[in-house]
Each structure stands twice: as structure tokens, then as C-alpha cells.
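quick one before i forget lol
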Amino acid sequence: MISSGGDDGGFEAALAPWLEIAGVEAAALVAPDGLLVAWVGTGKYDRETVAAHAASSLAALTGLAGALGREAPAVINAGLPGADLFLAPISSDLTLFVLGDSGVISGIGRKLTST
């Protein structure tokens, strides 16, 4: 497991169960300004760049929702070639980012939004 190395392990410990789901490759907590708070999983990505793009994607889609007269999204699912990801704002200060195999993440996202 690759972690951000920046905290005492509390955030990484909270993220670790995501890696127990077959097909999940990485999970992270990201601040609204794109700061990477914690990361568990694969080390093959530039984690800081992923965090920055995750935050800006959430901000853009939140702005779009507002422009459409809708509330901010609770969960954002995105299908990429060969992978899925989702973003879920868990507080005003943190967003959960999860990356995994196609189909795995969208299924988790649907389950989260139905509860």
C-alpha cells in the first residue's frame, strides 16, 4: 500500500477498507483546493496531480449543477476507458476519490446514493 506519508496514518487507515473491494485500485481524500490529504493504493499515478484534477472536476460539476438550478452533486461517477472513478464530497473540507476497474466503482456509487 502506498500512502501519502503526510499524516499519522489515521486518514490512510480510514481509506484502507476501500482497497479490500475487488477491483479498487486507489482511494484518496482531497481538500477543496486540490491538496492531497491522504492516498492509499497504487503508486503509479502522480497523486498530487490526480488530487488537483479531482478537486477542480468537483468544483466544475458543482458550478454546472448550480447553473442548472440544482443542488451540488452527492456523488460523481465517471467512466474512463478501462476504469471508473467516483468523487463524493464527505464534508465541506474533504472529498473522497476512488479509482477502480470498469463497473466496480459505478456499482459502489449507485449503492452509496441509494442508502
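fyi The longest strand covers residues 24-30.
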